[in-house]
Amino acid sequence: MANTTMTYRRLGNSGLKVSSVSLGGWTTYGHTVEELNTVQRIIARALELGVNFFDIADVYAKGKAEELMGEALAASGAPRHHLVVSSKVFHPMSDDVNDRGLSRKHIMESIDRSLDRLGFDYLDVYFAHRYDPETPLEETVEAFSDVVRSGRAHYWGTSMWSPAQIAEAHTFAKANGLVAPITEQPEYSMLRRSRVEERVLPVTTRLGLGLVVWSPLAQGLLTGKYDDGVPEGSRFANFERFREQLLTEENAAKVRALRPIADELGVTRAQLALAWVLRQPGVSSVITGATRVEQLEENVRAATLELSPEQLERIDEVLG
Ligand SMILES: NC(=O)c1ccc[n+]([C@@H]2O[C@H](COP(=O)([O-])OP(=O)(O)OC[C@H]3O[C@@H](n4cnc5c(N)ncnc54)[C@H](OP(=O)(O)O)[C@@H]3O)[C@@H](O)[C@H]2O)c1
Q1: Catalytic entry in 29, 60, 126, 131
Q2: How far is CA 51 from the centre of its chain?
């Protein structure tokens, strides 16, 4: 499984190392990529190329995505110690009032159901998918700490929590001898940058949490695939809501303007966009998505692409 193209970063101040380019299954496994065979091919290739970190959530395709990812990881034959697997809890899994949120009950029941679907004895990282204003933070932190202490996950993290919520959870855990979160999972890309750069990173860097960021390609928009319209079968063809949010005139113009910078470097815009996110030392991994093996092969090459201060300045001018 050794390779020379991937790089690995510590997940914040923890001793866990994740591939700088990682792979997730949101909107793909069990949705646009339904065949187990395709999931298996993408995951097997990811492992060959040095990806060790795989991200999923209970709510993705209502459990189906965890099942497919678990089956594909098992079929790959990769030893469990080689893999860093994360899943998440928060969103409703049924109409039941308790089958949602971050109560102790839901966290304890959900980790077992995720492990069953994945076919694993433990997760590497268990994420609170969102903040739950209806559960006292103390209850949530204690439950995640107990999940870790029981051996069902090695670490826990937050996703899309505000910097104040992250800091409060961290401080409460440290002050009470509980296990503190080691990572936050926010959205971050060339087209969605200010929240992370101005608010999240200052706090997570100070507390020693590593960021693993989602939609680093703005769901594919930054690859340039939408330059001439919306290709059939693509993310924005399948999900109108995301197209409306992201495929604005302004964003499309920025993506077109990035092309000459990528061309001069001899890289693709997907690689440029991922390397740009990875320029941040506070980012441990970019969690990418792929519907085809070729996309993954293109994207992992960003792991070793370094951008010079001049190139970063030119990119900044385009992004505004
Ligand atoms: N914590 C959270 O709340 C949260 C939220 C969202 C996502 N996530 C995580 O982040 C992961 C990645 O999110 P994402 O899928 O939006 O990431 P992304 O990497 O920004 O977008 C991936 C999509 O873009 C297209 N694509 C990727 N590489 C390409 C290439 N080289 N050329 C052309 N098209 C390419 C593919 O879609 P098409 O082929 O269909 O066009 C692919 O599925 C998820 O799987 C999940 O694990 C977490």
Answers
A1: 60
A2: 13
